[in-house]
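note to self: dont lose this again. the chain is below, predicted strucutre after it. 342 aa total, dont forget to put it in the shared folder this time
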Amino acid sequence: MAEPRVLVTGGTGLVGGAIVRALLKRKRLARVLARIPARARALFGERVEIAAGDLRDPESLRRACEGIGEIYHVAGAVDTHIHSDGEFLDTNVEGTRRLLEAARAAGTSKFVYTSSVSVYGDRLPLGVAENAPVRPAGIYGVSKVRAERVVQAATAAGFRVVIVRPCIVYGPGDRYFLPQAARVVRLPVLPLPDGGRRVVDLVHAADLAEAHLLIMDVGRPGEVYNVTDGRCYHAADLIRWMAGALNCSPWQPTIPWWLAVSVRPLANIVGRLRGLPELRRVGRQELNGLFSDYHFDISKITALGYAPRIDARGGLADELRVHAGSYGTAYRAHAGVASRQG
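---
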């Protein structure tokens, strides 16, 4: 029997695009839900079907789900500085509900939802596992928790649902982490919270895509899986690697919590004057994030056979060099670099 046709929402983004490329590598028939069809066509040419649609438009979702056997639901609101709380909830929560309703009407039952480790919140212990309590610190995490509940409830309607919780993701097509990191490490002064001893997990989009496909095939229905690259990085090391990739040498003084709180208003002013959104937008929640550890247990997915291949030391340097060149025009060409790294 032929393999079922696959729908990917958010296929023009970082994670969704990596999933589409992984599917095409396996000769799978992929359909991409896209608000801007021309962008999807520019990325993938004639190799995919394109369904023009939006998570806010139920009729477009019904059309997108026709003839589909599996769904990777990646699309959602991400930037808290662009979207209101209401937009987050309507897109990430109600949009997921609308997609599930369209999938049920189309007879589709296999569904992988891309959530986030943001559901756990800040100030975490090391090695957070999937059974840890969820205490999201902001609207993005709140919307992911609520969307997870919508997805889990779908099991009662006969869906085979699985949830993925990735950490910080980087790779070809990254419009958030890499551009921000490049701007920050180019600053002449880059204070390190707690001297850079805080730890953080990352994962390359190509590895995360493989995790999604693995979970679709052998993940246990109704389960949640953390996904990282399996390593644990100190912030100081990440800064050093990124600065080296961009030939930068920022002064990196240690800054304790009390001082960071005190100088935050000044940082906001400097950000506005210098056109640096990373400084202009720093608030209490952002400070909490900078002074927190983010390391997650991935033993659950490694037990399924997940074996990440790209570590941040090499992966970040490669991606930042592309970004430092002509990131937008190099997008499609660089997608092949990630696959060769694997």
